[in-house]
Amino acid sequence: MNNKIFKYGIVAMSVALVAGCQTTGNSADNLYNQYRAKPNNKAFSIGTNNVAGAAWGAASTSEAMKLAQQTCVNSGGFNCNVTEVNGKPVSSQAESSTVNNFNIVSQGINYKPNLNVKASGFFVNKDNILTTSDMIDACSKINYERSGRLLETTVVRVDKRNNIAVLKALTPNNSYATIGLSKQTTQGERTYTYGYELSDVVNTKTPTYQGKITDGIISSASGKNNDVRIMRTTNEVNEGNIGGPVIAENGNVIGLVTKGKQESIKSSMFTIFLNELNIGYKTSSTSKSVSPSKIAEQSKTYAVPLVCLNEA
Question: What is the C-alpha end-to-end distance of the chain, expressed in Å?
């Protein structure tokens, strides 16, 4: 980072920290006025609790947005969103404004969903959901959606090194994945992924989702620098797939989708994590192929969309 970015980033952060300590909107207004008066590149972010963050003098627009967002979060902002860049409203934030229509109450605490954080997970037994560790730091609470209802979970354990996390569902699920335990990853093997896209955000009391299946093949049996924990597939994936399953033709889950370029953590690796926690799971070595429609039907019973909640 050059000295200019570092200098202005620190200035913006210190101002926003003052804003975060105030209970009125005056300090946020003052910060906004400073932001408007500064030169490009600049960005302004504000949370649902009226805590704001701003950045200016960054090397690029994206860097300014990143600094403003981080400043707001670090200052205690909940569900922070960048609302302006270089003095102009961010039109792509329309989905974020819809978030404020939802008011989730759990054990007397009000929560707002942050729909900018997207992920899936899948049940490995009736109580436990496997996903990546990406959501953990961004959310006060993680729920999952099922038939228009939000169901609660608690975090059991996180392995940030390998980007794996396991949650405990407070409502047991009757269906769960069957894990494949192949000793070798086969390049060219057909694969399927199952993830979720947001739908009906305006007319529902909670966020609701639609499942999506994609097909592809294993393009590489290892990741970057021959990382044997990882395999690469050609499946079309988006943010809603992160933490969701990669499924073989026989219907067994053989991977966990990560943030990388169509990369997945192999089942042989995440089962080590589950074994260490003494968490049970079902396995199968069958080679009988299952139709894509059957795989989709099975997947939607054990794969779930995760919902990031922060205190309102």
Answer: 34
pLDDT tens per residue across span 10-22: 334 433 333 322 2
Answer whether 211's CB lies under 8 Å from 194's CB. Answer: yes
Task: Return the number of other C-beta atoms located less than 10 Å from residue 204's C-beta.
Answer: 13
Tell me the CA distances in angstroms from 228 to 143, 223, 248, one per residue in order: 32, 7, 18
> Do 144 and 131 touch, CB atoms closer than 8 A?
no
Provide the angle, in degrees to the nearest 10, between the axes of the packed helices 3-20 and 61-74.
Answer: 30
Which residue, chain included where needed, has tokens 């079309």?
236
The 10 Å Cβ neighbour count of residue 3 is: 7
Residue 137 has pLDDT above 90, yes or no: no
Contact 259, 237 (CB under 8 A): no
CA–CA dist 66, 182 (Å, integer): 41
Greater model confidence, 38 or 245: 245
- Count the Cβ atoms, other than its own, within 10 Å of residue 200: 12
User: Rounded to 5 degrees, what angle do the CA atoms 312, 157, 237 make?
Assistant: 75
What H or E segment, with its residue span, contains residue 159?
Answer: strand 149-159
